[in-house]
What we know:
By secondary structure, the protein is mainly α.
Amino acid sequence: MKERVYQWAQALCSCAGEGEEFLKDFWEMLTQSEGVYREFEYYLEHQTFLCEYKIAGYSVVDIMVWQIDHFKANLDRSKSGNAYTGGRSGDRMLLMAFHTMLKMEQEPEGYAVLMQTETGTDYSGKY
């Protein structure tokens, strides 16, 4: 199963526009985290989120929603209407949610503050 999870991580990184160095770092962090690894493996198997593992009260779905708000805010602010940075955006958002969760394990308080204060498109003067 671990080889299958690695192959999926490799394919996801490729589809998201990330290279070998990112994959290497991502895989190292992923295999050191029992909780995030389980969530990642579950998503591979079921194409839905398990959401059992939480950091500072946040699941991978909470992280993804927070990141989607930022993605939409960048689109709103972009003059061209396209703030896209490479790769397929759905794959990129999924990968970045897991990657952020891995980084959040190392600094839970900092990320919790960001998630509570950086609300993406919910900025003053929005309407």
